[in-house]
Design brief:
2 domains, Aspartate Aminotransferase, domain 1, seven-stranded mixed sheet, about 425 residues, alpha/beta, binds pyridoxal-5'-phosphate
């Protein structure tokens, strides 16, 4: 554990400057068609810094074993998992690592949670999902209808927000569950989660938050928001492919999860079926520590919050720059909320007149701009905006390693798309 102790010491540790981060990401050296690749695919998954790659390799070289064994590599594996829970607790602002469970990805964890909830939900109980959400925060809860639950869908507005009046109208004493995204992976919209927490609590409903798109761009604080469950995915914040479930203390222990006889009954273990990806978990801890290295303050939590605020400021500036450039192009329509208000993640989705979204993404990809075109699994967003006929939207995501130069080159390339 000694090589991590500088994160607890705080001030005396060196703070890194964000503009120097690119040299930490080996994959950014990639060239496409003679030009440097520009990774704008962060919402689909970010690149990983060397520290994460080395932590994964280090685990395989030194400590590769199954958990809970009576020998040194197994003990080190247990320590790796425990340390990663603590690191994730700091990232989430949670009281302890005991609130943090791991799984293959967010979707698998959400389905596991849904199967557990299906055993306590009663016919006539109501479940609320939204049109602004990724299918991973809809599909698992839609399945509760098979157990007699009534599923209600909250509309979104044409300018890319959740229709909060519709949410208010759908909430009632029958509502048992509200599943809502913190930020839309299609439009970047940040939802008013403190308000939604208050409204859901007034009717006694559980709040399940999909923070997958929010977590890479803003500091999370589960103690202040107090969701019942919150999910995110480490591969969206510079880590490996691991899903993370936060459960309010005391809640997961009560749920009848799928679980084998020898498996612990207690949180956070009772939803973790089978052997975890230990090497990837070593990488998750390294990703959290990597982010923290850009922040100042006493202790890991303060450094993380400071670092996330700096990352957000950098990303917001680039997103605003791109937004301004694209807004001046007559053949481009940008969807969603404006930037600069704190109510949008640095994710910019647009349509190009006369070009199908997947074609636009492919043409940009050939020039080394990695962007997505389509529905990004946020199918009901595309349906609500009536964009199916043009193949959805083109999505540009800004991450900590993107630069002004990349944004300007991308804007030029989009200008030439017509
Ligand atoms: C907002 C949002 N929720 C959920 C998911 C699903 O995450 P995972 O791939 O970890 O299952 C994604 C992935 O793109 C996402 O963007």
């Amino acid at each position: 554990m000694s090589h991590f102790s500088h994160f607890e010491k705080g001030r005396d540790a060196q703070v890194k400057q964000l503009h120097e981060c690119r040299s930490d990401f080996p994959s950014l050296e990639r060239m496409v068609a003679g030009k440097p690749a520009a990774y704008f695919d962060g919402p689909g998954g970010t690149q990983v810094p060397r520290a994460v790659i080395e932590a994964i390799t280090h685990y395989y070289v030194t400590s590769n074993a199954n958990a809970h064994g009576p020998f040194v590599t197994s003990r080190e594996t247990d320590e790796t998992v425990d340390r990663t829970r603590e690191r994730m607790a700091a990232f989430l602002g949670a009281v302890s690592g005991e609130t943090v469970s791991f799984g293959a990805n967010m979707t698998s964890l959400a389905f596991s949670l849904s199967r557990a909830i299906s055993r306590v939900i009663r016919p006539g109980d109501e479940v609320i999902v939204t049109a602004l959400d990724h299918e991973a925060n809809r599909g698992p809860w839609l399945r509760l209808a098979e157990h007699g639950a009534v599923v209600r869908n909250v509309r979104m507005t044409q300018d890319g927000r959740l229709d909060l009046d519709d949410l208010r109208a759908q909430l009632s004493s029958r509502t048992k569950l509200v599943a809502v995204g913190y930020s839309s992976n299609a439009l970047g919209t940040v939802n008013d989660l403190p308000l939604i927490r208050r409204l859901s609590r007034e009717v006694g409903a559980w709040l399940i938050v999909d923070a997958v798109h929010y977590a890479p761009h803003f500091p999370l604080d589960v103690q202040s928001l107090d969701p019942d469950f919150l999910l995110c995915s480490a591969y969206k914040f510079y880590g490996p492919h691991v899903g993370i479930l936060y459960a309010r203390p005391g809640l997961l222990d009560q749920l009848p999860t799928d679980k084998l006889r020898p498996q612990s009954d207690e949180a956070p273990y009772r939803i973790e079926t089978g052997t975890l990806n230990f090497a990837a978990l070593a990488g998750v801890a390294a990703a959290v520590e990597y982010i923290a290295s850009y922040g100042e303050g006493d202790g890991l939590r303060r450094r993380l919050v400071d670092a996330m605020n700096r990352i957000h400021a950098h990303e917001e500036q680039l997103a605003s720059r791109l937004y301004a450039a694209l807004s001046s192009l007559p053949h481009v329509t940008v969807y969603g909320q404006p930037f600069g208000t704190g109510l949008r993640a640095p994710t910019l989705s647009f349509a190009v007149e006369g070009v199908q979204a997947p074609d636009a993404a492919r043409l940009l990809g050939e020039q080394g701009f990695f962007v997505w075109g389509g529905h990004f699994y946020a199918m009901s967003v595309i349906e609500s905006l009536g964009l199916e006929s043009q193949g959805g939207l083109v999505r540009v995501g800004i991450s900590m390693y993107n630069t002004e130069e990349e944004v300007d080159r991308l804007a030029e390339a989009i200008g030439r798309l017509r």
